Amino acid sequence: MDELRDKIFELKAKRNAVLLAHNYQREEVQAIADFTGDSLELSRRAATMDCDVIVFCGVNFMAESASILSPDKTVLLPATEANCPMADMVTVDTPRELRMNFPGYNEVTYEFPEDFTLRDMKRRYPGVPVVSYVNTTAAVKAESDYCCTSSNAVKLVNAIDSDRVICVPDRNLAAWIAANTKKEIITWDGFCHVHDRVRPSDVDAARAEHQGALFVAHPECRLEICQMADHVTSTSGMLRFCRESDAREFIIGTETGLLYRLRLENPHKKFHPLRSDMVCPNMKRTTLRTILFALENNTKVIKVPEEIRVPAKRALDRMLEIG
Ligand code: CIZ
Ligand code: SF4
Question: Ligand 1: residues within 6 Å at CB?
Answer without folding.
Answer: 22-23, 38-40, 134-135, 149-150, 218, 234-236
